[in-house]
Design a protein that fits this description.
- Helix content is about 45%, strand content about 15%.
- By secondary structure, the chain is of the alpha/beta class.
- The chain folds into two domains: about 240 residues, Alpha-Beta Barrel (TIM Barrel), CATH 3.20.20; about 70 residues.
- The strands form two sheets. The protein has an eight-stranded parallel barrel, surrounded by five helices. The protein has a two-stranded antiparallel ribbon with strand order 9-10.
- Helix 3 links the parallel strand 3 and strand 4.
- The longest helix is centred in the last third of the chain and has 26 residues.
- The relative contact order is 0.13.
Length: about 300
């Protein structure tokens, strides 16, 4: 399916050092699984986790949902081995943490080329520092350059808040300008953009509120830290019944012979333009893609990890 309508409602981080969690990931209906080699893995476990994640990509990959691997940051001693090992198993994307400037993307491309990664290997970029936010437009512009494609920004709101020395408050008032700037940069260059994590695992109502806020800000989905959060994100970032009904009405109205050449029409007392028709078609396509993904997940036999 086209990247523009690929569902990324939920992106679940899974520690690369936790074999049980990686095996369970096959049964969790997240749109994206992010196998993590960075924050959730201690230094003494990095090498073992890298091998385990490379194997997990093999038994989790396939189908409509995306398997992404977050490697260690480019300046860490583990990054070269991460890139070599993970590029060899071809996940849907490699997620780069601690990106600061556009030159970091060039460094990544050079490392991927040295590792003989396939030209189609996609890259996602974490925006989690003040420098990254300030340079977001320049970083996003690299997406226009080929090989590999930069597909998405992923906000690291915990790191960003720590760097900014701002408190964690309901509604995230101190972070909203920086989130909005990141979305603006991503959309200017055709990138998807995912929200940061919500830390209170048991507070479903506040999670839902933060997902709704993220959707209102234009984000495509939310990164998550626990499987119980997946259902909330999937529901919130999917088109609702009323939204789908209106999208169909807009498409049907413009399809009428009397509106074949119209750029603006009146529909149920509202002014509707061709740009609204394009948005309506994307909404319908997204809903269809979500249904196809959910159906595949329900029907597809769950893979077993090696040795199970």
């Amino acid at each position: 399916m086209p990247a523009s309508v690929r569902p990324r409602r939920s992106a679940l981080y899974v520690p690369g050092s936790n074999a049980r969690a990686m095996a369970k990931a096959a049964t969790i209906p997240a749109d994206v699984i992010i196998l993590d080699l960075e924050d959730s893995v201690s230094p003494v476990e990095k090498d073992r986790a890298r091998d385990a994640v490379a194997a997990a990509v093999g038994y989790l990959a396939g189908g409509r949902r995306e398997i992404v691997v977050r490697i260690n940051d480019l300046d860490s001693p583990w990054a070269p081995r991460d890139i070599a090992a993970i590029a060899a198993v071809r996940p849907d994307a490699i997620l780069l943490p601690k990106i600061q400037r556009a030159d970091d993307i060039r460094r990544t491309r050079a490392a991927l080329a040295a590792a003989r990664a396939v030209p189609t290997q996609a890259v996602w970029v974490m925006i989690e520092t003040p420098s990254a936010v300030l340079n977001a437009a320049a970083i996003a512009a690299i997406a226009a350059m080929p090989t590999p494609t930069v597909d998405a920004f992923v906000l690291g709101t915990n790191d960003l808040a720590a760097h900014l020395r701002v408190p964690s408050r309901p509604g995230r008032p101190a972070l909203l300008p920086h989130i909005a700037q990141t979305v603006l940069a991503a959309r200017a260059h055709g990138l998807a953009v995912l929200d940061g994590t919500f830390n209170d695992i048991d507070d479903r109502n506040s999670l839902r509120g933060e997902c709704m806020q993220g959707r209102d800000l234009g984000l495509d989905g939310k990164t998550l830290i626990h499987p119980t959060q997946v259902a909330v994100a999937n529901e919130t970032f999917a088109p609702g019944t009323e939204e789908l009904f209106w999208a169909r009405r807009v498409i049907e109205a413009f399809a009428g012979p009397e509106n074949a050449k119209a750029e603006v029409i009146r529909l149920q007392g509202r002014m509707v333009e061709r740009l609204h028709e394009r948005a309506a078609r994307r909404t319908i396509e997204l809903a269809a893609a979500i249904e196809a993904m959910d159906e595949e997940f329900r029907e597809k036999p769950k893979p077993r990890r090696p040795g199970s």
